[in-house]
């Protein structure tokens, strides 16, 4: 009867056999190429086993990357939306700044054509009353603004200052029903009065004879007759001329050249505020200074004080007095009085 468990070689023998077999295989593999096909086939089998054993790790990494990438994509999407919104806001601001730059350039170009001193002001408010055309600007009495001061934009006259405050002023526009301005046709010099109609796009010329030489497209400029607005500034362009044979006056409608309801930056015109007497006196003084500028012939340039007695030749009676020569010094103040006469 055979035993239930057959007894084989001992473990030490098995280990020794395996060690010898391994060494033999390594020697054969290093010296010969017999085992290369076997090794390639074994690598295919081992690769499958590697893939199977690595499958749980790859599955976990894939799931984690899916959740992680989704969270990152959501965060990145929100970030990009925020940046796009900010860039759109900046783009809108850039467009507004571009338009503002264009308006300021137009205003600077118009200020270069103005002979008087000007100062830039900004519109900061409008009168809420629909029956009055008034605006509020950011220049006031502290800035040297005076009542009646003309205001214009890059295209023409807008109105005049009618109310002063320390840091702001109120401007009455040309189209207000209570405002009128003396104008003249730039083509032929025909004078008229342009009055406001309450419509920001229309002025009317009143009491223009039906036979007057005025036609559509004529440019109306300030005539300066009212001594409030300087002469030569564009006011309006004639839009319509209606002749009625039964009426003594023609109906003339004009469109203001200034953008009354669109301009934001304005020009305050500082005209010459001197009276006619002061201007005449200043002109006489300037003429006298110009005449007395170069030294007169026969005077000593080293002694400018001797220039004043040059007026003595105008008085022949003073020449034959050689004896009192030392008294010539007190006589000097009398010579300028003769010049002024």
UniProtKB/TrEMBL annotation:
InterPro entries hit by this protein: Cell/Rod_1, Cell/Rod_MreC_2, MreC, MreC_beta-barrel_core
GO cellular component: plasma membrane
Transmembrane feature ranges: none
Extent of Basic and acidic residues compositional bias: 276-288
Keyword Magnesium part of the UniProt annotation: no
Biased composition (Low complexity): 301-318, 328-341
Key word Coiled coil present: no
All copies of domain Rod shape-determining protein MreC beta-barrel core, residue ranges: 124-269
One Pfam family per UniProt: MreC
Entry keywords, A to Z: Cell shape
Ranges where the record places region Disordered: 276-341
Coiled-coil regions listed: none
Single GO biological process annotation from the record: regulation of cell shape
Assigned protein family: Belongs to the MreC family.
PANTHER family, A to Z: CELL SHAPE-DETERMINING PROTEIN MREC
The protein, known as: Cell shape-determining protein MreC
């Amino acid at each position: 009867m055979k035993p239930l468990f057959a007894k084989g070689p001992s473990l030490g023998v098995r280990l020794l056999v395996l060690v010898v077999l391994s060494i033999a295989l390594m020697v054969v593999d290093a010296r010969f190429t017999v085992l290369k096909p076997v090794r390639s086939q074994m690598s295919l089998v081992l690769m499958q086993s590697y893939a199977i054993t690595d499958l749980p790790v790859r599955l976990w990494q894939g799931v984690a990357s899916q959740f992680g990438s989704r969270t990152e994509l959501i965060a990145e999407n929100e970030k990009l939306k925020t940046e796009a919104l900010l860039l759109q806001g900046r783009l809108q601001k850039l467009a507004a700044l571009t338009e503002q730059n264009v308006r300021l350039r137009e205003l600077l170009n118009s200020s270069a054509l103005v002979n008087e001193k000007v100062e830039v002001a900004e519109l900061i408010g409008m009168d809420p009353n629909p029956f009055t055309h008034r605006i509020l600007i950011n220049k006031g009495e502290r800035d040297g603004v005076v009542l009646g001061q003309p205001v214009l934009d890059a295209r023409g006259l807008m109105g005049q200052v009618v109310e002063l405050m320390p840091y702001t002023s109120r401007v009455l526009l040309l189209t207000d029903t209570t405002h009128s301005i003396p104008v003249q046709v730039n083509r032929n010099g025909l004078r008229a009065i342009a009055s406001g109609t309450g419509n920001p796009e229309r002025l009317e010329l009143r009491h223009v004879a039906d036979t007057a030489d005025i036609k559509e497209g004529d440019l109306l400029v300030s005539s300066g007759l009212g001594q409030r607005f300087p002469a030569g500034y564009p006011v309006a362009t004639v839009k319509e001329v209606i002749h009625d044979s039964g009426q003594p006056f023609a109906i003339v409608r004009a469109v203001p050249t200034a953008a009354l309801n669109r301009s934001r930056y304005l020009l305050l015109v500082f005209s010459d505020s001197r009276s006619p007497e002061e201007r005449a006196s200043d002109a006489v003084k300037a003429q006298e200074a110009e005449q007395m500028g170069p030294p007169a012939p026969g005077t000593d340039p080293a002694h400018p004080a001797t220039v004043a007695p040059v007026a003595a030749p105008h008085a022949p009676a003073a020449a034959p007095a050689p004896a009192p020569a030392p008294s010539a010094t007190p006589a000097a103040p009398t010579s300028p009085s003769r010049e002024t006469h």
